[in-house]
Specification:
heterodimer; A: seven-stranded mixed beta sheet; B: mainly beta; six-stranded mixed beta sheet; four-stranded antiparallel beta sheet
Chain lengths: ~110, ~120
C-alpha cells in the first residue's frame, strides 16, 4: 500500500532563516505531488504541484520554492522566512493525471517568530 | 473557474443525532466530488468520492453523500454521530477537461463539527 511521509512534524524558525520541508511517498511510482498551505480559518491553498522529476508548477507567487529531485520526493524551501509563512503545510500525492484523487500526508506545523 | 461553498463554518450536533454538512459547487461539466476529514493537527483523510454512477455514495466511518446535479450539491450525512467525529470537514471538486486533462482539486473552506455530549 502507499504511504506518504512529511518531516519535520513541527518547526519553529526565526524570521529570515531558511526552510526545507520534505515529503516522500512510498509504494507508488510517478505520482503527481502537491504542496498546500493551510492557514487558520482559510482552507487549503495550493502552492506547488509536480507531474514529474524536475517539473514544478507554481500556483501562488511568494518567497517559497519547490523541487522534486527524485520521483517520490518533494521539497518545499525558502531562503528567508517571513512571519506570514507560518501555517500548516500539507503534502499530497495523486495516482491520477490531473490530480483528481489526492491523498494527504500528516502535515508540518511551521511557526515563524 | 470551479468553486466550492461550504455555507456552515461551525455546526454543533448532539452525540447520537443525525448530521448533514452542506456543500455546493459551481462548475459547468460533470464534477468529481470529494469529502475529506481533518482531525486537529493531522492531515486530511478521504471519506468518500463521487466520480460517476450511483449518486448516493458510501464512505468510511459510516458517512454517505448524495450528488444532486439539479442543486449543484454534494451534502455529507451520517445517521448517528459519535464524539470521535468532531473534526474539520472539507468538500472538494475537480473536473476533467474535454481533452482528457484535469486541473487538480478546489477545496471549500471547511466546516468545523462540534459534538455535544
Amino acid at each position: 500500500s502507499q504511504t506518504i511521509h512529511q518531516w519535520p512534524a513541527t518547526l519553529v524558525q526565526p524570521v529570515g532563516s531558511p526552510l526545507s520541508l520534505e515529503c516522500t511517498v512510498e509504494g507508488t511510482s510517478n505520482p503527481n505531488l502537491y504542496w498546500y498551505r493551510q492557514a487558520a480559518g482559510r482552507g487549503l491553498q495550493l502552492l506547488f504541484y509536480s507531474v514529474g522529476i524536475g517539473q514544478i508548477s507554481s500556483e501562488v507567487p511568494q518567497n517559497l520554492s519547490a523541487s522534486r529531485p527524485q520521483d517520490r520526493q518533494f521539497i518545499l524551501s525558502s531562503k528567508k522566512l517571513l512571519l506570514s509563512d507560518s501555517g500548516f503545510y500539507l503534502c499530497a500525492w495523486s495516482p491520477l493525471a490531473g490530480g483528481l484523487l489526492q491523498f494527504f500526508g500528516p502535515g508540518t506545523r511551521l511557526t515563524v517568530l | 473557474a470551479q468553486s466550492v461553498t461550504q455555507p456552515d463554518i461551525h455546526i454543533t450536533v448532539s452525540e447520537g443525532a443525525s448530521l448533514e454538512l452542506r456543500c455546493n459547487y459551481s462548475y459547468g461539466a460533470t464534477p468529481y466530488l470529494f469529502w475529506y476529514v481533518q482531525s486537529p493537527g493531522q492531515g486530511l483523510q478521504l471519506l468518500l468520492k463521487y466520480f460517476s454512477g450511483d449518486t448516493l455514495v458510501q464512505g468510511i466511518k459510516g458517512f454517505e453523500a448524495e450528488f444532486k446535479r439539479s442543486q449543484s450539491s454534494f451534502n455529507l450525512r451520517k445517521p448517528s454521530v459519535h464524539w470521535s467525529d468532531a473534526a474539520e470537514y472539507f468538500c472538494a471538486v475537480g473536473a476533467m477537461y474535454s481533452g482528457g486533462g484535469a486541473d487538480g482539486l478546489t477545496f471549500g473552506k471547511g466546516t468545523h463539527l462540534i459534538i455535544q455530549p
